[in-house]
């Protein structure tokens, strides 16, 4: 039986997506390259479609009356799936470089209720793996300096989920976040992942949006899942972005 621990705050930054066109790595059936590893569009689709199918089945089982098509559709997107795959790959590379051992402690069953996704989906299993990995990495990295810019980047990312009061000032956010330890950890982990992304020459198919590392924070009452734009100690990075898709290419369905 797995050991269990309380879920700690896991709030990590996003990695800016790079064009697949560089270095000849532009196969249209590849969603992302991380080093020599390829993540196919088919794999992203399979994880996404499995999540949607099992989510709809769960809603039908629990609904007192026939649910609408909108109610049968999870907010999970193909972009969310790709975010998990890329973050896990990069995080494992960082852990290997540091000689860290990741303990398998968080089970999918611990996440399914607040993730609103059955534990049997690969999507939820990937989340469980990511929570373990990102927590281990954060514990190994010294906290980064806290700037107003990085603090507000985290706040705005959480604000988009509706889980925090909108329109707060920097002073109000500092008061709400207290010591803001999770923001410091997020920035430190962000820097480590970005460095690894550059080392591994990450390339993402422009059919997808800017790749964000999956993030969550434990408020004490619930878990908030969100995606944080890439942040360093000086704030969100804005000069690295995904080039527009070639003419005739449309965004992947469900991509955010």
UniProtKB/TrEMBL annotation:
Matches recorded under InterPro entries: TAT_signal
Keyword Signal: yes
Alphabetical UniProt keywords: Signal
Top-level taxonomic group: Bacteria
Signal peptide annotation: 1-21
Regions of compositional bias (Low complexity) in chain numbering: 243-256
Full protein name: SurA N-terminal domain-containing protein
Keyword NAD included in the entry's annotation: no
Pfam family, one: SurA_N_3
Region (Disordered): 236-256
